[in-house]
Amino acid sequence: MHGLASPANLGAMANDGSAEAQRREHSRHRIEIEIDVSSDHNFYAGMTSDLSEGGVFVATHLERSVGTVVDLAFRLPGSDEPLQAVGEVRWLRTYSESSDVPPGLGIRFVLLGPGAREAIKRFLEQRDPMFYDT
Questions:
Q1: In 72-84, which positions are buried (b, 16+ CB within 10 angstroms) versus exposed (e)?
Q2: Is the pTM of this model over 0.70?
């Protein structure tokens, strides 16, 4: 099913910390790029609105359950080759008429393809992180 890891290994890799700790571990950076997401027999495309070394937010109306394992493919600006990853849906934001934030999926990277982590890190080092009031 997933070209980068066996399903048996994904559970062990996914349980390495709380969701709250995962969100704060890496700075998020605003970026809008197309991203392909596939799970089981489903394939869909979405747009990112932010990216970190630990994961990505995919803006989409398509909902997936928390814990769903997905394959990701995306191309960073200035790169010819798409990056491949396996991710896990950690949270979702549903559509709301009273909000101006897009619906979508918060996906944590479980496994990145060869060179992907380094490519993401180099790319993000050239961008300013997003800041939020707490």
A1: bebebeeeeeebb
A2: yes
* Fold classified for 7-125: Thrombin, subunit H (2.40.10)
Give the distance, in angstroms, between the CA of residue 130 and the centroid of all CA atoms in the same chain: 16
Which tokens hold the place of 65?
A: 């359950």
What letters, b where the CB count within 10 A reaches 16 and e where it falls short, cover 40-62?
Answer: eeeeeebbbbbbbbbbbbbbbee
Cα(130)–Cα(113) distance, integer angstroms: 25
Q: Pick the closest to residue 11 from 125, 118, 110, 133 (CA basis).
A: 110
pLDDT in tens, 94-107: 988 898 888 999 99
Q: How many residues does the chain have?
A: 134
pLDDT at 67 over 70: yes
